Amino acid sequence: MIQLKKHINWVLGAVFLLFIFLGLFIYKNINSQPDTVISPEQMPVIKNETETIDSKTEKNEEESVSSSQIMIDVQGSVHRPGVYEMNNGDRVIDVIRKAGGFLEEAETRSVNQAEKIVDEMIIYVAGKGEEVHPLSSDKGNDKGDLLNINSADLSELQTLSGVGPSKAQSIISYREEFGPFKTIDQLLKVRGIGEKTIEEWKDKIKFQ
Q: Is the pTM of this model over 0.70?
Protein backbone atom coordinates (compact mmCIF):
# COMPACT_ATOMS: atom_id res chain seq x y z
CA MET A 1 0.00 0.00 0.00
CA ILE A 2 2.79 2.33 0.86
CA GLN A 3 4.54 1.52 -2.38
CA LEU A 4 1.36 2.28 -4.34
CA LYS A 5 1.10 5.71 -2.72
CA LYS A 6 4.73 6.39 -3.56
CA HIS A 7 4.09 5.35 -7.15
CA ILE A 8 1.07 7.64 -7.41
CA ASN A 9 3.00 10.54 -5.89
CA TRP A 10 5.83 9.99 -8.36
CA VAL A 11 3.39 9.99 -11.32
CA LEU A 12 1.69 13.15 -10.09
CA GLY A 13 5.07 14.82 -9.62
CA ALA A 14 6.13 13.85 -13.11
CA VAL A 15 2.90 15.20 -14.59
CA PHE A 16 3.30 18.42 -12.62
CA LEU A 17 6.84 18.89 -13.90
CA LEU A 18 5.64 18.14 -17.41
CA PHE A 19 3.07 20.90 -17.20
CA ILE A 20 5.69 23.30 -15.87
CA PHE A 21 8.08 22.54 -18.75
CA LEU A 22 5.23 22.81 -21.27
CA GLY A 23 4.20 26.20 -19.88
CA LEU A 24 7.77 27.49 -20.01
CA PHE A 25 8.13 26.29 -23.60
CA ILE A 26 4.97 28.06 -24.71
CA TYR A 27 5.88 31.25 -22.83
CA LYS A 28 9.36 31.29 -24.38
CA ASN A 29 8.02 30.86 -27.93
CA ILE A 30 5.51 33.66 -27.51
CA ASN A 31 8.07 36.14 -26.17
CA SER A 32 10.70 35.14 -28.72
CA GLN A 33 8.58 36.51 -31.65
CA PRO A 34 10.61 39.35 -33.25
CA ASP A 35 9.19 42.84 -32.82
CA THR A 36 8.15 44.59 -36.03
CA VAL A 37 10.68 47.30 -36.80
CA ILE A 38 9.82 50.12 -39.21
CA SER A 39 12.80 51.33 -41.16
CA PRO A 40 13.24 55.07 -41.88
CA GLU A 41 12.41 54.35 -45.53
CA GLN A 42 9.06 52.82 -44.52
CA MET A 43 8.03 55.69 -42.28
CA PRO A 44 5.35 57.95 -43.79
CA VAL A 45 6.56 61.28 -45.02
CA ILE A 46 4.84 64.14 -43.20
CA LYS A 47 4.97 67.38 -45.11
CA ASN A 48 5.70 70.52 -43.20
CA GLU A 49 2.61 72.55 -44.08
CA THR A 50 4.03 75.69 -42.46
CA GLU A 51 7.09 75.60 -44.70
CA THR A 52 4.88 75.06 -47.78
CA ILE A 53 2.63 78.00 -46.89
CA ASP A 54 5.62 80.23 -46.14
CA SER A 55 7.21 79.29 -49.46
CA LYS A 56 4.05 80.11 -51.40
CA THR A 57 3.63 83.39 -49.52
CA GLU A 58 7.20 84.45 -50.26
CA LYS A 59 6.74 83.56 -53.94
CA ASN A 60 3.51 85.59 -54.18
CA GLU A 61 5.16 88.54 -52.44
CA GLU A 62 8.11 88.42 -54.87
CA GLU A 63 5.75 88.29 -57.86
CA SER A 64 3.74 91.15 -56.43
CA VAL A 65 6.83 93.29 -55.88
CA SER A 66 8.10 92.45 -59.36
CA SER A 67 4.80 93.37 -61.03
CA SER A 68 4.63 96.71 -59.15
CA GLN A 69 7.96 97.97 -60.51
CA ILE A 70 7.79 100.28 -63.53
CA MET A 71 10.42 102.17 -65.52
CA ILE A 72 10.14 105.92 -66.14
CA ASP A 73 12.31 108.08 -68.43
CA VAL A 74 12.94 111.58 -67.02
CA GLN A 75 14.35 114.19 -69.40
CA GLY A 76 14.87 117.92 -69.57
CA SER A 77 15.52 120.41 -66.79
CA VAL A 78 16.22 118.08 -63.85
CA HIS A 79 19.51 117.51 -62.06
CA ARG A 80 19.91 113.84 -63.00
CA PRO A 81 18.03 112.93 -66.21
CA GLY A 82 17.72 109.20 -66.82
CA VAL A 83 15.59 106.08 -66.47
CA TYR A 84 14.32 105.35 -62.98
CA GLU A 85 12.63 102.35 -61.39
CA MET A 86 9.45 103.41 -59.62
CA ASN A 87 6.37 101.84 -58.03
CA ASN A 88 2.84 101.73 -59.38
CA GLY A 89 0.88 104.53 -57.76
CA ASP A 90 3.82 106.97 -57.65
CA ARG A 91 3.33 110.49 -59.02
CA VAL A 92 5.34 112.62 -61.42
CA ILE A 93 6.71 114.63 -58.51
CA ASP A 94 8.12 111.41 -56.97
CA VAL A 95 10.12 110.70 -60.13
CA ILE A 96 11.37 114.27 -60.37
CA ARG A 97 12.57 114.11 -56.77
CA LYS A 98 14.40 110.88 -57.54
CA ALA A 99 16.03 112.65 -60.49
CA GLY A 100 17.38 115.31 -58.15
CA GLY A 101 14.59 117.86 -58.51
CA PHE A 102 14.03 120.75 -60.91
CA LEU A 103 16.86 122.88 -62.22
CA GLU A 104 16.64 126.60 -61.53
CA GLU A 105 15.71 127.29 -65.14
CA ALA A 106 12.98 124.61 -65.24
CA GLU A 107 9.43 125.53 -66.20
CA THR A 108 7.66 123.56 -63.48
CA ARG A 109 4.26 124.16 -65.06
CA SER A 110 5.30 122.11 -68.09
CA VAL A 111 4.46 118.91 -66.20
CA ASN A 112 1.57 117.84 -64.00
CA GLN A 113 3.39 116.98 -60.80
CA ALA A 114 0.32 115.27 -59.32
CA GLU A 115 -0.20 112.91 -62.27
CA LYS A 116 0.09 109.18 -61.65
CA ILE A 117 2.89 107.58 -63.64
CA VAL A 118 2.60 104.58 -65.98
CA ASP A 119 5.20 102.11 -67.21
CA GLU A 120 7.54 103.40 -69.98
CA MET A 121 6.27 106.95 -69.46
CA ILE A 122 8.47 109.82 -70.61
CA ILE A 123 8.50 112.91 -68.41
CA TYR A 124 10.01 115.97 -70.07
CA VAL A 125 10.59 119.06 -67.95
CA ALA A 126 10.89 122.08 -70.22
CA GLY A 127 13.12 125.04 -69.56
CA LYS A 128 11.70 128.55 -69.23
CA GLY A 129 10.73 129.87 -72.66
CA GLU A 130 11.28 126.48 -74.29
CA GLU A 131 8.75 125.20 -76.83
CA VAL A 132 7.48 121.80 -75.72
CA HIS A 133 7.01 118.96 -78.19
CA PRO A 134 5.10 115.82 -77.22
CA LEU A 135 7.22 112.75 -76.54
CA SER A 136 5.86 109.28 -77.20
CA SER A 137 6.46 106.55 -74.62
CA ASP A 138 5.44 103.79 -77.04
CA LYS A 139 7.98 101.85 -79.07
CA GLY A 140 8.10 100.68 -82.63
CA ASN A 141 4.54 100.86 -83.93
CA ASP A 142 2.81 102.62 -86.80
CA LYS A 143 1.17 105.08 -84.38
CA GLY A 144 4.39 106.26 -82.78
CA ASP A 145 3.87 109.86 -83.95
CA LEU A 146 0.39 110.12 -82.40
CA LEU A 147 -0.21 111.52 -78.93
CA ASN A 148 -1.11 108.89 -76.35
CA ILE A 149 -4.11 110.44 -74.63
CA ASN A 150 -3.67 108.03 -71.68
CA SER A 151 -0.07 108.91 -70.82
CA ALA A 152 0.40 112.48 -72.10
CA ASP A 153 1.21 115.01 -69.39
CA LEU A 154 -0.13 118.54 -68.98
CA SER A 155 2.23 120.14 -71.49
CA GLU A 156 1.84 117.38 -74.09
CA LEU A 157 -1.96 117.61 -74.01
CA GLN A 158 -1.73 121.33 -74.71
CA THR A 159 -0.23 120.57 -78.12
CA LEU A 160 -3.70 119.42 -79.22
CA SER A 161 -5.84 122.05 -80.88
CA GLY A 162 -8.17 123.89 -78.50
CA VAL A 163 -6.50 122.57 -75.34
CA GLY A 164 -5.25 124.96 -72.70
CA PRO A 165 -4.05 124.25 -69.15
CA SER A 166 -7.59 123.97 -67.77
CA LYS A 167 -8.85 121.51 -70.38
CA ALA A 168 -5.62 119.48 -70.21
CA GLN A 169 -6.08 119.19 -66.45
CA SER A 170 -9.69 118.07 -66.95
CA ILE A 171 -8.51 115.23 -69.22
CA ILE A 172 -5.92 114.12 -66.66
CA SER A 173 -8.40 114.34 -63.77
CA TYR A 174 -10.94 112.25 -65.68
CA ARG A 175 -8.54 109.41 -66.49
CA GLU A 176 -7.19 109.39 -62.92
CA GLU A 177 -10.73 109.00 -61.59
CA PHE A 178 -12.22 106.64 -64.19
CA GLY A 179 -9.17 104.96 -65.72
CA PRO A 180 -7.67 105.20 -69.21
CA PHE A 181 -9.74 106.21 -72.22
CA LYS A 182 -10.72 103.32 -74.48
CA THR A 183 -12.55 105.11 -77.30
CA ILE A 184 -12.56 108.62 -78.70
CA ASP A 185 -16.25 109.03 -77.85
CA GLN A 186 -15.37 108.63 -74.18
CA LEU A 187 -13.62 112.01 -74.37
CA LEU A 188 -17.04 113.64 -74.73
CA LYS A 189 -17.52 113.00 -71.00
CA VAL A 190 -14.70 115.43 -70.22
CA ARG A 191 -15.90 118.96 -69.47
CA GLY A 192 -15.24 121.34 -72.36
CA ILE A 193 -14.77 118.70 -75.06
CA GLY A 194 -17.40 118.43 -77.79
CA GLU A 195 -17.93 116.49 -81.00
CA LYS A 196 -16.17 119.13 -83.10
CA THR A 197 -13.08 118.82 -80.91
CA ILE A 198 -12.82 115.03 -81.08
CA GLU A 199 -13.37 115.18 -84.82
CA GLU A 200 -10.20 117.30 -85.05
CA TRP A 201 -8.32 114.92 -82.74
CA LYS A 202 -9.25 111.56 -84.28
CA ASP A 203 -6.13 111.46 -86.50
CA LYS A 204 -3.82 112.92 -83.86
CA ILE A 205 -4.34 110.76 -80.79
CA LYS A 206 -4.12 107.11 -79.76
CA PHE A 207 -5.22 105.19 -76.70
CA GLN A 208 -2.34 102.73 -76.09
A: no
